[in-house]
Amino acid sequence: MDTIPMFIGTAFQPYALLRESPFVDAGTLDTTSLKIPLKDLAGNFRIYNNRIDIGAFEWNPGAGIGYRPEQAVLSASPNPCVESTNFSFFLRMPGMVAVRITDLQGKLIKDIGNHKFNSGNCSLKWDLSTGSGNKALPGVYLCTITGKNVSGSVKIVVTP
Predict the structure, then answer these.
(1) Whole-angstrom Cα distance, residue 45 to residue 53?
(2) Which terminal residue of the chain has fewer beta carbons within 10 Å of its beta carbon, N or C?
(3) Where do the structural domains in the chain lie, given as residue ranges?
(4) What is the pTM of this model?
């Protein structure tokens, strides 16, 4: 097969397929003679939507045994930043995502809050304000996003 499989490529299940992959539901219809396990390596049922996928992990929008949130590729631009930065990431499924800024020791600098995002490309702006309303001091910070189906982090450099 000379088609790109579109693996997630990161996190706990790097060979899991993206929903848009041409390999989702592309496996053989008759799996009775294959003697395959009931579940894949992550604990997801092999047969979903009445078809098997072509890949090490089955694409499954639900939470199966061993399910872990997808590791998001989270970016910040501009980075380094002076006045603000925009966080960008991709969600395969819509949902609530918590966004928090901490210093490298884990001290909470700003709880940007929980936001509902649609699936697809998502973005959010941070104006470099702290929880007390002051501008973040020059230094290195960590933006972390967490949700039911996604988690990720990115370092941000704030310059004077």
Answers:
(1) 11
(2) C
(3) 1-68, 70-158
(4) 0.56
96-111 pLDDT, tens per residue? 888 999 988 889 999 9
Q: What is the DSSP letter of 45?
A: B
Token couple for 119: 């699936």
Is domain 70-158 in CATH 2.30.40.10, yes or no?
A: no
What distance in Å separates the CA atoms of residue 34 and residue 69, rounded to the nearest whole number? 30
CA 49 to chain centre: 23
With tokens 């933006």, the residue in question is: 143
Nearest to 155 by CA among 76, 94, 97: 76
State how far the Cα of 152 lies from the Cα of 122, in Å rounded to an integer: 13
Q: How far apart are CA 111 and CA 113, in angstroms?
A: 5
